[in-house]
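quick one, 437 residues, struct below
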Amino acid sequence: MAAAAEDLRFEDYFREGSAPTEALLWWQLERNEPLLNALRALCHGPAALVRLRSWVFMELMALPDSRLARETLNRHFHVLREDALDLVLKRLREAELLAWDGSNQVYSVTPLAQRLLGLLSPLTQAGEQDADLAALLANVAGAHQLGTLDPAQLHHLQAQLSRLYDEFADAIASGSEFHLRRARQRFERALKLVEKASEALRAIIEQAQADGNARLERLARELGLAQARLLAMASQFNRALQQADRQRVTLGSTGITTTDVRRWLQGVHFLENLALGALSRPVHPVLVAQHELLDTAEAEFERDRPKPKEAEALPEGRSAPEGELAVMSLPPEMDLMQALLARWTAAGEIEQDLAPAVLGGSYARASYRAQLLPLLGDPQAQHLNGATGDMARQPWRVHWSAEQGEVDDEYIAWMSRGVLRATAEQEQKTTTKESEE
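---
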């Protein structure tokens, strides 16, 4: 079965019999095929042999010499059997991680080995908690400083933040106090890491804006939203822990809570041993005399109790204060544009440049006027009442041009060309009026 699997090509694993050559990730893996082969050569085989190769490889990469003679390697790996060292060095040479210079009888490390060292560097680090998030954040921040940031790194970091958000949300929804406290500890550690990476994220967004890299800027902003969503979970943790505190029960006047009992029970290795000998003890009845019961009842009746609250009448009704009904009004730009079109109509104008009708004021006002122009002649809006219907019934039509150019305006430097033309009916009325005059 293993031999048959090795004989299959990469394309044979897909339904259509062809690899997804148009995918970016497939192209990146194909480009880094030598690195995959080197990793496969180092990590293929039994676990003990893989650990031996990795140990020798990491030791070799830590040696300060650029060229290594065989005597140097024998002295450095004196604890290793010679046949085992020869086996590992042969595998490293075949994987092109070591280069052998036959004329000088020395070994040298290849650039491929340096790249592979970057992949295996987490093996030399302590297995700290949240090392996965720390490694992704370090890769993004370091790649940005070196100018080698790739969108895939932002994708991986965003996916990890989403997984952490789901994990913390499940802990909050569980309602378990111990689950909440464990998740809260990890949340605080992740929060510190994310806050330290905020400056790098802002620098990435600013650099992407300066370079005009819209894709990288979009990914960085999406990553910022995922980071903000994760930061907003602090209040949810506080509310969940407060709810758990309210549900905690204190056992009598001892000060011991159910949380303390549960924590103690979790530390007991064999809970069944607590019941040893419990059933062997006989039942001891407690006899109480009548006068003792009477004394207890008298003391209970004579004990001072707080007076119950007396019933209070509802307050008298009062009339509601007077108020004003605020009605939204359209911006004055529509009335101003209709007044301008009315003046052109009264003056008998047939065609006017588009700039006077659009420009003026701020950029937002000019944008709003440009959005009003498609209303001219709109058949669906012509039947409406109010300013929108009056705008649609104006005897003018907008004609945009494909040309663009500079305009003389304080807020807009560049604009598409266009004209406003009177309708055929209005043009005919204007011609008839001129002929009569």
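The mean pLDDT is 77.
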